[in-house]
Amino acid sequence: MATSVAAADDAGYDGPRNDPAGLLAAARRYTVAGWPVFMLGRSKRPVANCRACQAADDDHDKTACPCLTCHGFYAATTDLNRVKAMLTRIPGGLLAIRTGTASGLLVIDIDPRNGGQLDRELMTPTAAVATSRGGWHLYYQHPGGPTRAALPDRPGVDIKADGGYVTAPPSVHPVTGQPYQWTGQWPVTEMPAALRAAVAQPPAPVIRPVTSSCPTRAATGISSPAALLASLLRTVEEAPEGRRRNTLYGSARGVARMVLAGALSTDDAYAALTAAGLAAGQTPRDIRGAIRGAFTDEGAPA
């Protein structure tokens, strides 16, 4: 079995340390509840992949990888023996819970540093964690189906579901030195209808036949425009933080080529890309800039 090493930025780390016994006790409770857990590095970042996984090609199956701590949340497990081994491998690391259908959890992540606010009418009482920076993690039952990456028109409010994770109590933040803490006695509850509707990912737009008088490139032989568009939009929605705008730009160039090939109208293209950008938590201004730049660079009508 290949082994993983702690993230490179953990070298020489001199911040607050976590108590392995406390993390193990918490992990036992979480795994009994059916919540897969894994370890972050001491600096709150995912543990670096081992060399073999770093060198693996795109066909590498992250879910089936036998490595103990590679691939971030894909290493999450409900096997307490594996969790114990992770704690030994990453001493002082932080405990994290995988969100989404794997755990049955959807977590509303409220970060007041970015303008996030608790809406008590929309976000009804449920199991909650006070984060180490004055924010909140609200744990709800996963509603099923795809969800957005952020609540629309609510800065500082992200959605942690499939493809995500949250730092779990009693982990200690490496900068603030404060622990994540459960508050109150509420269980994990169902979301109210209004919140369920707000987190739901909007359906992909229907691709309509296009008749255009503007010059286009030669037909590219797109066998399934709907499948290609869905793939490009999914890339935007699954982009990690810090790469979302660049990913939107890259996908928009692909969509622009579909427009030039006559497979999609400009209006439908803009609508689909805008919806994907909003679902990924990007601002309308950044979305417009990325799409226009991509279309201009491809020579498509912007």
Termini separation comes to: 51 Å
- Radius of gyration, rounded? 21 Å
Percent of residues in beta strands: 5-15%
Fraction in helix: 25-40%
Number of strands: 8
Number of helix segments? 8
Name the overall outline. Answer: globular
Q: Could you state the order of secondary-structure elements as H and E?
A: HEHHEEEEEEEHHHHH
Largest sheet data: 5 strands, antiparallel
Broad structural category? alpha+beta
Low-pLDDT stretches: 1-13, 211-219
- Round the mean pLDDT to the nearest integer and report it: 84
What's the number of domains? 3
Report on the structure:
By secondary structure, the protein is an alpha+beta fold. It folds into 3 domains: 1-98, no CATH class; 100-157 and 178-201, no CATH class; 225-298, no CATH class. Helix content is 31%, strand content 12%. The chain has 8 helices and 8 strands, in the order H-E-H-H-E-E-E-E-E-E-E-H-H-H-H-H. The protein has helices at 20-32, 51-55, 80-89, 193-199, 225-237, 244-260, 266-279, 284-298; strands at residues 37-40, 94-98, 105-110, 127-130, 136-141, 157-160, 165-167, 181-183. The protein has a 5-stranded antiparallel beta sheet, with no helix packed on it. Strands 1-2-7 form a 3-stranded antiparallel beta sheet. A hairpin with a 5-residue loop joins strand 4 (127-130) and strand 5 (136-141). Helix 5 (225-237) packs parallel to helix 7. The longest helix has 17 residues, at 244-260. The protein is globular, with a radius of gyration of 21 Å. It starts with 19 loop residues before the first helix and ends with a helix. Residues 1-13 and 211-219 have low confidence and may be disordered.
